[in-house]
């Protein structure tokens, strides 16, 4: 096949950003800090099975027919209410809520709606690798803004905007960052909206982990502060229910949503009715909040085990973010250590542990001294054991420099 036949966005000679993210490791005592998956044992499988049956019983054969690009209004109404109650977004109606094929499709459709080739956008450094994999397809010019312990550096954002007033799009993970583990402060949320108004850009606030807060107080969404319809709030059922539902939802101004529907119709015609109806029945007959409370109880124990283990085992000069929820901790090591090399040469073959090395989370793949650690997929004992091995490994790597 002649590679020149492909559009430039595909770059056939370049592997997907998501390929090989999780190294294969088949040792019996392997401990994997890699996945961003929710704990399977906590899936509400029985209740969801019943919800699918209820959906089929309610609509009979019609359940399986073509439906519409916007999906059931009852579900969008429920989500509009949730956006007002939990995210503190005002005046949300079903028309402001769009259902997407996972949060991932929301990211992709927003990028497609905004970005012409070469258009300027800002991403956090580091940022969610799946978002980069989508943005890459629209061939933007990336400007990176560093992530701090209280969210993206808004001074640096403003300096970048002054220098590049053509920037039209900011992508941010505001709560329990993937991969950073940090949460944006209230002040920075306000500042982001202020800057969006001043410098005329759109903000995509991607928050699949928002409900998974284990300690501390919930903050209003960035969209809460939105005065000009510039912020798109994006959530997902993947982390709080199940990833296979492939259902995300976003809240935005109607004019934005109309453009996104054009793109969704072109991509996949419509929301899968059976799944949307099943989620609607699930929400009608079960308390999502009770389920989330249960998840948070279990995940808190795992997060605490990770925070304790970081303190106990990480050698001097190595820092770890201290999450209050979500799935991840981010570890930064000495600049001289390349965490990709360390993973393949030492961590997997010798210590039988795996993490996701930092370079995957940067637009230009040029930061090599960090790693993302997941704590929700492991028991506290596994976390302790794995972090002990990581501590040994890093102490040894430090001596080799
Ligand atoms: C920050 C962030 N956004 C979006 C997604 C996409 O999730 P989904 O498409 O399953 O909703 C993920 C998944 O890991 C994520 O971490």
Automatic annotation (TrEMBL):
The cross-references to Gene3D superfamilies, in alphabetical order and at most eight, read: Aspartate Aminotransferase, domain 1 (3.90.1150.10), Type I PLP-dependent aspartate aminotransferase-like (Major domain) (3.40.640.10)
Q: Name one GO molecular function term.
A: pyridoxal phosphate binding
Q: Which organism is it from?
A: Secundilactobacillus mixtipabuli
- Matches recorded under InterPro entries: Aminotransferase_I/II_large (IPR004839), Class-I_PLP-dep_aminotransf (IPR050859), PyrdxlP-dep_Trfase (IPR015424), PyrdxlP-dep_Trfase_major (IPR015421), PyrdxlP-dep_Trfase_small (IPR015422)
The UniProt family comment states: Belongs to the class-I pyridoxal-phosphate-dependent aminotransferase family.
- Give UniProt keywords alphabetically: Aminotransferase, Pyridoxal phosphate, Transferase
Q: Quote the subunit structure annotation.
A: Homodimer.
Domain (Aminotransferase class I/classII large) spans 29-390
Classification via Pfam families: Aminotran_1_2 (PF00155)
Per the record, the domain of life is Bacteria
Which CDD domains does the record associate with it? Answer: AAT_like
Q: Which cofactor does it need?
A: pyridoxal 5'-phosphate
Q: Which GO terms describe its biological process?
A: alpha-amino acid metabolic process
**What is the protein name for this chain?**
Aminotransferase
Q: Which residues form a coiled coil?
A: none
